[in-house]
Amino acid sequence: MTARRGVGLTPMETRRDVIVRTAVLADELGYEVFAVPEGWGLDSAPVLTEIALRTTTIRVASGVLSVWGRTPATLAMTAATLQQISEGRYILGLGASTRALAEGFHDVPFEHPAAKLRDVVTKVRALLAGEPARLTRAAGAYPLRLGQPPAPELPIWIAALGERSLRVTAELGDAWIPAFVPRDSMAGLTEKLRQLRQAAAPDASPLTVAVGPLTVVAEDTASARDLAATCVAWYLTAMGDVYASSVSRQGYAAEVKEIIAANPRPSPRRGTVPPAAEPVLGQLAAYGTAEQVSDQLSEWERAADIVTVMLPPGLPWPVIEATLRAAAPRSVAVPAGATAGPPAAAAAAAPGSASA
């Protein structure tokens, strides 16, 4: 069978031309999903439109849109439009984001994020299914429907790290797309999600897991490490406390403290992961030569249905190209007694599939 691969970016990557060029190469190399995030820089919708028009098979994803930045109606319109433009290849990724973005950028109080996530996912699904808008604030208003053909099959993938958000993912999502989760924690978290989903929706399709490490390929292993370490350090020290708290909860509290202490003035261009915190870097990143990275990614194949290669921001094009080529989908051995088809969880994510 062929290992399934995706590509994900960070919100700090704002070179639109580079993003599109990366997506076109990923399409040519057989990657399954290309995810464009949205933070405080580029609006992901027009970028995904350009990518959809320049690719043929790769699925294009919002990875992710904040539930604080758009109304459910706007999210549904955007998703349904991108589904048309991409001819059925679009995936709507949603997440509760962070306090820093919700309050510092969107000017919205970051209150009850899991409840907000549940409310938005529920309302967007209703609109995409052709139902009237579920109004809760405008008393007496006439609820409108989405003014284009319904798209109930459009998948919604959810980014979640906290306990309550994980429950929303298990109950309402088609896939779980976390970021910066230690590889050795994935088995336990995936099993928890499976149990939650079975209890909440026993007839639903299995939840697809799309996750992977920050990935950098370079001829010089030390240079590749520095690029990966800078991004890991930035996320654990400067992106609020969501990622630092999550990684700490997974058994790496001491290492996170070491990284925070080593980066008193966090910079997205220069960060340090000290030797005492090396285990965290090994859990969150794959770096080195092409052969080294290929070996490291094989470890993630046991943790995810789709191994999502995350590219740090600002990489030179030769590094991006080398990384994508080294991490590209490849044939893997099928264990004795196993089928050569995709796992059940993976099949649930196929284009056109209905879901929970």
Automatic annotation (TrEMBL):
Keywords: Oxidoreductase
Residue segments, region Disordered: 337-356
Gene Ontology molecular function, alphabetical: oxidoreductase activity, acting on paired donors, with incorporation or reduction of molecular oxygen
Entry keyword Ribosomal protein: no
Keyword Mitochondrion: no
Membrane-traversing stretches: none
Every Luciferase-like domain range: 5-303
The protein's name in its UniProt record: LLM class flavin-dependent oxidoreductase
Source species of the chain: Trebonia kvetii
